[in-house]
Design a protein that fits this description.
heterodimer, A: mainly alpha, MetI-like fold, two-stranded antiparallel ribbon, globular, B: mainly alpha, 11 helices
Chain lengths: 294, 285
């Protein structure tokens, strides 16, 4: 009897705790939205999102330069990261010997575990001077603290995310399909391209989108190498000021200037909303692919 | 297409794949190498055994003990909090609910979404929570922020191993008359202990390394915190602030601190692997 009671009690408690993840998602949205209302009462949402002047003291909170900064850095990072990650994933999944695969797993996990501030330190030491040199080679002047520096650091940070998801996708392609293709005389590469990659196309897109959303919200490492100048960048060698960096850099002042905190919470809400949509889309694709595979 | 051309195409792509894999592995080595080469020469015993003395950030004496202890305490508290929530959720989803049940699917989905939430957003949300609760920037507020960040990481990692427990094992336990709770705690937890320990350590490592979530919430101080309500320094922020000074010596210390943080993370992930393996003797194959 006592055991039954304990079980019933545990069931209730665990059920309540299991409602936490869902509730937390809602709570974060509501909390940030509630706090952003103040700034939205005086400005239209589009006005804040596409406004180009950021002068908190005068009450103008245009997020567009920061949004543009985030987009530049994120997209440039994806251009670098996607081909490298996908080729690596294909290699590890289709070509590598079990031995190489055994080594690659921990390497990718380690890369995923390196703190972003360490990426930032490495970026300022190695990538920023490198970009400065590249810029002067092309006849441009750049401090090195630039979109390109942020993109390079960010690309390396999203390798593990994309590779990890892509490997899962490739693993879910049935071996029999590969065998059938090989039996018809296709080469290994043709099999990979026409069978594995085609079959996994949805999942590959999902992997890329998950990497993109990881890059979108990354803060410290990017903040340390992009220069943080609140202007819309015109080239890869220009400085940028991404949205997450804006939030992280200004928490000190935000309580002393009216509406500042509200504007920053709105910035956080925008980040959350974008990442939320990306994640939901990618997960839906993955869940559907998984179901099909089963 | 002739066979020759097909072979050439294959060779080209194989080369590209090899280069890509080398880039991925190489960047890890490059980063670790840079941190070690730049950091170790600047590292000495006082760095890790003393707190900053007056004028530390101008190049005077002291160390980063405040940040090391702060980070360890903060991550330990956060990991504990995250564990208290993660384990029951994972057990509930796997023992009390059927795999395809709508509740289980939605909860896993919510965990996936939380996993993707950037740490700066957790920092901002925890800041709101902190103001709402009337807390100041403190060890406790930082723990809450980092616990939010760790929760989905830990829960998902646990779920991945608990899901793999063969249903037969569960059914055998039920058939012997065990309740679901008893099955969960004595069979499932024991069977998946290596995976659970690994999940906890992975989350702990993430917690130690994250800066964006604590920047609003934990504060920063030169002293070692003695209560949950005092502000606490953290290693990532210590690195960030030291690197931001114009003094070359202090920047050297930032490199040394980065080496300390990296070694700590490496040790944790090594522990996650070996401890995980050691606990395996309790599991039934």
């Amino acid at each position: 009897m006592k055991r039954r009671l304990r079980d019933a009690l545990a069931r209730r408690t665990m059920f309540l705790l299991s409602a936490v993840p869902g509730a937390l998602v809602a709570l974060i949205f509501l909390g940030l939205a509630g706090k952003s209302r103040a700034v939205l009462a005086l400005n239209s949402f589009a006005g804040v999102l596409f406004g180009t002047t950021w002068q908190p003291l005068r009450g103008s909170f245009g997020l567009f330069p920061f949004l543009a900064g985030t987009l530049w850095v994120t997209l440039a990072a994806m251009v670098l990261a996607v081909p490298v990650s996908l080729l690596t994933a294909v290699y590890l999944s289709e070509y590598a010997s079990p031995k190489v695969r055994g080594v690659a797993r921990p390497v990718i996990d380690l890369l995923a575990g390196i703190p972003s501030v360490v990426f930032g330190v490495w970026g300022t030491l190695m990538i920023v001077p490198f970009v400065r040199a590249v810029a002067s080679f092309f006849g441009a002047t750049s401090s090195g603290y630039s979109v390109l520096a942020g993109a390079i650091v960010l690309a390396i940070m999203v390798f593990p995310t994309i590779i990890h998801v892509a490997l899962e996708v490739f693993a879910s392609v049935p071996q029999s399909l590969r065998d059938a293709s090989l039996a018809l005389g296709a080469t290994k590469w043709e099999t990979t391209r026409h069978v594995v990659l085609r079959k996994g196309l949805g999942g590959i897109n999902a992997a890329v989108v998950l990497g993109l959303s990881r890059a979108f919200g990354e803060t410290m490492a990017v903040l340390m190498v992009v220069g943080n100048v609140a202007r819309i960048p015109r080239s890869l060698f220009d400085s940028a000021y991404p949205l997450p960096a804006l939030i992280a850099n200004n928490y000190g002042e935000m309580m002393s200037i009216p509406l500042y905190d509200s504007a920053l919470m709105l910035a956080a809400l925008v980040l959350l909303a974008v990442v939320f949509v990306f994640n939901i889309g990618a997960r839906l694709v993955l869940v559907r692919a998984e179901r099909k595979a089963e | 297409m002739g066979l020759r051309r097909r072979r050439v195409e294959e060779a080209v792509f194989k080369l590209l794949m090899g280069v890509s894999t080398a880039v991925v592995a190489g960047s890890l080595l490059f980063i670790l190498g840079t941190v070690v080469v730049k950091g170790l020469p600047a590292l000495d015993l006082t760095m890790i055994t003393q707190t900053p003395k007056g004028g530390y950030y101008l190049g005077k004496e002291g160390g980063i003990l405040n940040a090391i202890v702060g980070s360890l305490l903060l991550a330990a508290g956060a990991t504990f909090l995250a564990f208290v929530f993660s384990l029951p959720v994972v057990l509930y989803l796997n023992v009390y609910r059927r795999r395809g049940s709508r509740f289980a699917v939605l909860t896993r989905f919510a965990l996936d979404v939380l996993w993707g939430v950037p740490s700066i957003v957790y920092g901002a949300f925890a800041f709101l929570l902190m103001v709402y609760l009337g807390l100041r920037a403190s060890l406790l507020a930082g723990m809450i922020a980092v616990a939010l960040l760790e929760f989905p990481i830990m829960a998902r990692a646990m779920d991945e191993v608990v899901r793999l427990v063969p249903p037969a094992l569960r059914d055998a336990s039920f058939s012997l008359g065990a309740t679901k709770l008893e099955t969960a705690l004595r069979i499932i937890v024991r069977q998946t202990l290596p995976g659970i320990v690994t999940a906890v350590l992975i989350a702990f490592g993430r917690g130690i390394g994250d800066a964006a979530s604590v920047i609003f919430t934990a504060g920063f101080t030169d002293r070692v915190p003695t209560s949950l309500l005092q502000p606490a320094a953290t290693l990532p922020l210590a690195i960030f602030y030291q690197l931001g000074t114009p003094v070359a010596e202090v920047q050297q210390r930032a490199y040394a601190s980065a080496a300390v943080l990296t070694l700590l993370i490496l040790a944790i992930s090594l522990a996650a692997r070996t401890i995980g393996r050691r606990f395996k003797r309790h599991t039934i194959k």
